[in-house]
Write a structure and sequence with these properties.
Layout lengths: L8 E2 L2 E2 L42 H19 L6 H12 L6 H11 L2 H6 L2 H4 L7 H22 L8 H12 L6 E7 L5 E9 L9 H10 L4 E7 L9 H14 L5 E9 L2 E4 L7
Parallel strand pairs: 5-6
Antiparallel strand pairs: 1-2, 3-4, 3-5, 6-7
Helix pairs in contact: 2-3, 6-7, 8-9
Length: 280
């Protein structure tokens, strides 16, 4: 939780009220419009001291933005570091502010670009310069990316697209703060019918009910399932409880003609397959 303090200045220019609720000025509803000009051509919010914003400084970072966009347009994302890609996105979300320090602060706090997009909203807003609107837009980007990965699995045989399954599960669960247990339900052609979160637990435990898993598979007319859960600790190594629970679900599903193809454990540091480890 950030502390309240009077506005000050740093290397990026004056701090304005409304960014992370700092300062005595009441916060606008959307920090993206905070620096927008009024119809009279005057900036909203606190007046900016001309001595703190010398002539040409605005043109400097706008020139930087143009150069970054040109590199991306001509060479794609490979020409940009992670902080530059994030900075490029933040240009749209925070129109009139140097966003490089914000991009670098986000990466320093969360570790990587996927972890920034996977971070909970309340943690994103702890970063100076990131308010509720920017945090929500970052989560929107994450949701779109996840939906794209799910689209790659649609109408395809899941077992023939295993790398896509792993990427989809990592995007969905790798950076969650609590354990989730989800099930991929497949038809007789091993095509994805549904992807559902069955339970959400604590930081190191999720209750799983084998009969409920099998019951839902019967409701969806699924003939096979893939079990997936995450380890918020980052280490995907299966526990004894993970192995025993998987075997119990297999024993419950088998008499009803439902195959458990695998149980995948997702962590920030990678993933583990119980079938690949020959544990089931």
């Amino acid at each position: 939780m950030t502390s309240r303090r009077p506005p000050d200045r740093n290397d990026n220019g004056p701090d304005h009220g409304g960014i992370n609720d700092e300062g005595p000025v009441s916060a606008p509803e959307d920090e993206r419009s905070y620096f927008a000009e009024t119809r009279q051509g005057k900036p909203k919010g606190l007046a900016v001291d001309a001595s703190a914003n010398p002539a040409g400084s605005e043109e400097h970072y706008h020139g930087h933005r143009d150069r970054l966009r040109l590199r991306f347009r001509d060479s794609g994302d490979r020409a940009l570091a992670d902080y530059e890609l994030l900075e490029l996105l933040l240009f749209r979300l925070i129109p009139r502010r140097d966003t490089k320090p914000i991009a670098k602060a986000l990466l320093a706090r969360f570790g990587s670009l996927p972890e920034v997009l996977g971070a909970p909203t309340h943690l994103l807003t702890e970063i100076k310069g990131v308010g509720d609107s920017v945090a929500t837009d970052l989560k929107l980007v994450a949701a779109i990316a996840h939906r794209m990965l799910k689209g790659e699995l649609k109408d395809r045989q899941v077992l023939a697209s295993w790398s896509a399954v792993i990427e989809y599960c990592r995007a969905a669960m790798a950076f969650e703060a609590r354990e989730q247990f989800r099930v991929l339900f497949l038809d007789k052609k091993n095509t994805l019918i549904a992807d559902e979160i069955q339970q959400t637990g604590t930081v190191d435990h999720t209750p799983v009910y084998p009969r409920e898993v099998v019951k839902r598979a019967l409701e969806l007319s699924a003939t096979a399932i893939i079990l997936v859960h995450n380890h918020p600790s980052g280490d995907p190594t299966p526990s004894r409880a993970d192995i025993e629970m998987t075997k119990l679900i297999i024993d419950t599903a088998k008499p009803l003609g439902i195959t458990v193809h695998d149980h995948i454990i997702i962590g920030k540091d990678g993933h583990a397959s119980l079938k690949g480890l020959k544990l089931i």
